[in-house]
Write a structure and sequence with these properties.
The chain is mostly helical. It is built from eleven helices and no strands.
């Protein structure tokens, strides 16, 4: 039986009936160990599973508080600033105007234009390395979150075994042990017999309360499962967007800027024609289609502009995913802290 089925059945069926055979054996063994005459032992019943769950909550909290995840946003901000330093519209102006806008000076040489691009390109290359590291970190986190999910699942099953054992014992107390003692004491005025019955009733109440605490702990594992998957999903989407930028959008943008600057060099050197051959244009159109699609019969600087706009949109979408994930992590952090505080109180009670 998978976890989803078990989640659905724990509130609608007798728990012992939905456990695996191995879990049933363990639950029966634990039920036999519950001694109504040993109130002290009842306090620690299920405590090992709850203690592990508390440690697990700490690990979960550390995961959602990771500061290196936040650095992705800083890297993306820096990327956008560098990307905005190259404006395709400037390439449509006369050379002097283009250089004046780009460098704040007049009459810059072609070499200075290329130097500026090379500097911007080098900065983007360094940012790309940082994005690659961030992507690898996100993928590593996904693997680690899988382990957390498996651990959470183990705690869920472990708590179910304790709860099933306690429920069987409580059922035995209410359906057999207590009624038998009441019948045995019927008509008796022996105060010791009456005290024995009171102790048994008190033990049943304490066991019921202990089961309530264990069910709260189990609820924590149930709530943690979708939260872990939510973090994984966000990390996966973010890693995929970064990967798309690294292997497709950024190389295409750099290629098109290089072509545009080459055309400027050619124009400056020979004042040649501005049209590009049809075969070359077909290649440009195929490249542009990768990140947005463009249907033009001639290559012009609008192609580069569209490519850059698509790249900017891709980075902005990546930033949106990051912000959305950050907000969800903060919500999860608050929920985990509240649950952890409640669990600590239960363990200290």
């Amino acid at each position: 039986m998978n976890e989803i089925d078990l989640f659905q059945q724990i509130n609608t069926a007798r728990l012992i009936d939905v456990l695996s055979e191995e879990e049933k054996i363990r639950a029966y063994e634990l039920a036999k160990q519950i001694n109504p005459k040993n109130h002290a032992l009842l306090v620690s019943f299920g405590l090992p599973a709850q203690s592990k769950l508390l440690a697990f909550s700490n690990v979960m909290l550390e995961q959602v508080q990771r500061k290196d995840i936040g650095q992705v946003g800083e890297i993306l901000d820096e990327f956008m600033k560098n990307l905005n330093e190259v404006r395709p519209d400037d390439l449509q102006q006369e050379e002097t105007s283009f250089l004046g806008r780009l460098f704040g000076k007049r009459k810059k040489s072609i070499q200075e234009v290329l130097s500026r691009f090379n500097k911007t390109g080098a900065q983007i290359d360094r940012i790309s390395v940082r994005l690659e590291r961030s992507k690898n970190m996100l993928l590593s986190d996904i693997v680690m979150l899988d382990r957390l999910y498996d651990n959470n699942k183990d705690y869920f099953h472990s708590l179910n075994v304790y709860i099933a054992a306690g429920e069987m014992k409580l059922e035995e107390l209410h359906n057999r042990i207590i009624p038998e003692l009441k019948n045995a004491n019927s008509g008796s005025n022996d105060p010791m017999k009456q005290q024995e019955l009171e102790d048994l009733l008190q033990f049943a109440d304490q066991l019921d309360q202990r089961l309530y605490d264990l069910k709260i702990s189990r609820e924590i594992t149930i709530q943690s499962a979708p939260q872990i998957r939510m973090i994984q999903k966000t990390n996966q989407k973010l890693a995929e967007k970064i990967q798309s930028s690294l292997v497709t959008a950024i190389p295409l943008w750099k290629n098109q800027v290089s072509i545009a600057l080459t055309l400027i060099r050619q124009k400056s050197a020979a004042d040649a024609g501005r049209k590009i051959s049809e075969p070359a244009n077909e290649l440009y159109q195929k490249q542009a289609a990768v990140i947005g699609g463009a249907k033009r019969s001639m290559f012009d600087l609008d192609t580069l502009k569209e490519i850059q706009e698509n790249l900017q949109a891709s980075i902005q979408e990546t930033m949106r995913i990051h912000v959305d994930g950050k907000n969800k992590r903060e919500e999860t952090e608050a929920e985990i802290m509240a649950r952890e505080s409640e669990l600590k109180q239960k363990l200290q009670a």
